[in-house]
Design goal:
Number of strands: 7
CATH architecture: 3-Layer(aba) Sandwich
Number of domains: 1
CATH superfamily: P-loop containing nucleotide triphosphate hydrolases
Radius of gyration: 16 Å
Number of helices: 8
Largest sheet: 7 strands, parallel
Length: 206
């Protein structure tokens, strides 16, 4: 089983949307996928309850109680973990211990950039990250042309780490989520350009 942690210390950066999008993409390729919700708000679990019949199944894993971290159904190919906001300290270390990769979404605002910088600095000291056993990748999330995107580009340049993908802001994401769906549940050609933005992320996970 491969485990992917979607995490940042900044709330509201789109962690859940990234988590459900990746879970649906992996399930759509035929994998057996679990979605672990470690956020007390339980947004990912609520999304799964609205998921309709006829789409690729995703198994719900409730990690909203930290004592349940690490408990998952057997025979999963993938486990996507939606971390809580304000992830720091022991809880960050415990979730990273369950992951083979960390994906950190970053919004194009000065507050998100600053918070992400501090988050990356903090997890540098986590043993599995320090020893290179867990890779940390970034996603530029909800981007639009303008000063915010320029600021985000400058952040990545200073950091010396380019994001895996630039994901543009689109109303399709919340509209689909309200139906228990995600981008990769929709076969229509109109969604193809949005799916293409996720291709580098999925390639990095293989």
């Amino acid at each position: 089983m491969k485990s992917i942690l979607i995490a940042n210390r900044k709330g509201g950066c789109g962690k859940t949307m990234v988590a459900i999008t990746l879970a649906a993409a992996l399930a759509g390729r035929g994998g057996t996928v679990g979605l672990a919700d470690a956020d007390p708000q339980k947004s990912a679990l609520r999304w799964l309850k609205h998921r309709p019949d006829g789409v690729a199944p995703i198994r719900a894993v409730d990690w909203t109680n930290p004592s349940d971290f690490g408990e998952a159904p057997k025979k999963l190919d993938w486990l996507v973990i939606d971390a809580p906001g304000a992830l720091t300290g022991d809880r960050a270390e415990a979730l990273i211990a369950e992951a083979e990769a960390v994906i950190t979404p970053v919004l194009p605002s000065i507050f998100d950039v600053d918070s992400t910088r501090r988050f990356l600095k903090e997890i540098e000291h986590v043993k599995r990250v320090r020893k290179g056993k867990v890779g940390v990748s970034l996603i530029a999330n909800r981007t639009r042309a303008g000063r915010g995107a320029d600021r985000l580009g400058a952040f990545f340049e200073k950091l010396g780490q380019e994001p895996l993908a630039w994901i543009t802001e689109r109303t399709a994401y919340p509209e689909l989520a309200a139906q228990g769906l995600a981008l990769f549940d929709k076969p229509q050609k109109a969604y193809a350009p949005l799916k293409e933005q996720w291709a580098p992320v999925l390639a990095a996970l293989d």
